[in-house]
Amino acid sequence: MLKLIQCEFWKLKRKHFVSFVIFAALLFPIPFTALVLAGNVGSFTGFDAVFGLLVTLGEPVMLPIVLGIVSAMLFFMERDNDTLKNLHTIPVSPAKIASAKIAVLFILGFIYSLATLLSSMVGGMIAGSELVNIGEKIGISIITGLLYTASTLPVVIMIVGLNRSYIFSIILTFFYTMFDYMLAYGGQFASKEPAMKLISNIFPAPTIYRWQAAQFVSPDSPAYSIIEPYFLPLWITAIAVFTIGAISYIVIVKIYSKRES
Amino acid sequence: MLKIAKTEISKLKRYSVIWIGVATMLTVVLLTRFMATASDGAVHTLENFSDSVIWNNFSLIFPATITMIAGYIIERERVDDTLKNILAIPITFRKLLAGKLIAVGGLAVLLAVIEFVFTMSVFFISRFPGFSFTGMMTALFKMIGMNLFVYVAVLPIIIFTGQRAGSFMAGVGFSFFYGFIGTFASGHGLGSIYPITVGLSLINYQNGETTACNKVLSTGILFLMFAISNAMVLFSKNKVPSAKANKKPAKNKRKN
């Protein structure tokens, strides 16, 4: 399996996408550092503010989109180059290939989260603050990266299942990410409408957001008393999101194995 | 030049990417309608519903969509290997690029009209109050204006990635980021400086109540973006053949 993952990275290397993932992770810190320097980020300042903005606003939008594009590249690569028949004869099962490709997504999610942390450290230093609580921030950053990677898997089902063009897949990823983001940042989990409540409990971003809010909303903030009843502990968030991820993984492997066998 | 643009419009009819543009417009309107359902108790008139559509369109989807369509039709010439035939006519890459950009500009207007039709349809189906003919025409002009201004703001990205084979997807990703940051720029008094949001003050978004509104500065930024784009087109080159030509003999040498 490790060899397969390594092969997937070699294939991606041709498309220069690992560098694109890191570049994408370094985009948001620039405007967010500017915002912090302008002193427009509530009660947080310096490194805390840059990190908070990146993890709660930058990563939830950029990471699923980047991973959606990478997953289209990964899953369409064998189809476009007609190389699956070669892999079959080695023999490597489609289930193993699909698992390796999903593992690559998680590794890229991990790399993205570390790049986000590093860029927020640079932003924090530019904003003139000391880099405090690094250990805690590494934990939050990695967990966020892995949760959002798992949250991207439902759209990978659509990408693999529909098996259309790159453009179609990217648009699909955009729509999914935007809708998920709107549910979370529009505060739809607090809606009184049962349908809205159900949707925001099914989609992963609102669940992740509720865990993140518990980490970032200061008790001194006026919003604290409003959002506090919706806080979620990490274990509930992890179970909910990784259950969606696990179901998606099984479906992706099944679809991929069925089509290519 | 106009003939090239006309040819590009004819070619556009063949591409399914246009339907993706239509789908994005529909999605933006439906997303706005969904958000309107979620905002309990608020009254949605034609003016604030169409303004919300404009806001979601420029911040979430339109910059990436128009960059993708433009990038796709430029890249198509390389993928279908038709660029060599066009260059042999001879039409320079610069002229071809300019023709394509004019055609995509027309498409930006068409997508605004489609966005308007969807907005009005959803408005009537939802039975929101506040319909007036003047309000309807204002919404149409605001949508056309905003799409054109956003298009001018993303032109340098399209031109930059259009010259490099296989790089338009990176341009789409960057345009998305560029548009998304617009919400922060507008919320922090930079609406008249940030290229994506300058259109908001020019179309008099929400009567200038929610965004920084300096029309002179906004017009200046827009002209600057347009001038940069023109300069980029003037010095544009297709950067693929030379790279390939350099690589091929090296491969042959190794084989020998």
Task: Quickly list its features.
heterodimer, A: 261 residues, mainly alpha, B: 256 residues, 10 helices, globular, disordered C terminus
Number of strands of chain A: 0
Q: Helix segment count of chain A? A: 12
Q: Helix fraction of chain B?
A: over 70%
Mean pLDDT figure of chain A: 83
Structural class of chain B: mainly alpha
- By DSSP, the count of extended strands of chain B is 0
Proportion of helical residues of chain A:
over 70%
The overall pLDDT average of chain B reads 84
What quaternary form is this?
heterodimer
Shape of chain B: globular
Number of helices of chain B: 10
| Portion in beta strands of chain A | under 5%
Global Rg of chain A:
19 Å
In short:
Chain A has one domain (2-260).
Structural summary, described in words:
The complex is a heterodimer of chains A (261) and B (256). In chain A, 80% of the residues lie in helices and 0% in strands. Chain A is an all-alpha fold and 261 residues long. Chain A has one domain (2-260). The longest helix of chain B has 34 residues, at 46-79. In chain B, helix 1 (2-12) packs across helix 5 (93-126), helix 2 packs antiparallel against helix 3 and helix 3 runs parallel beside helix 6 (133-162). Chain B is built from ten helices and no strands. Residues 243-256 of chain B have low confidence and may be disordered. Chain B is globular, with a radius of gyration of 20 Å.
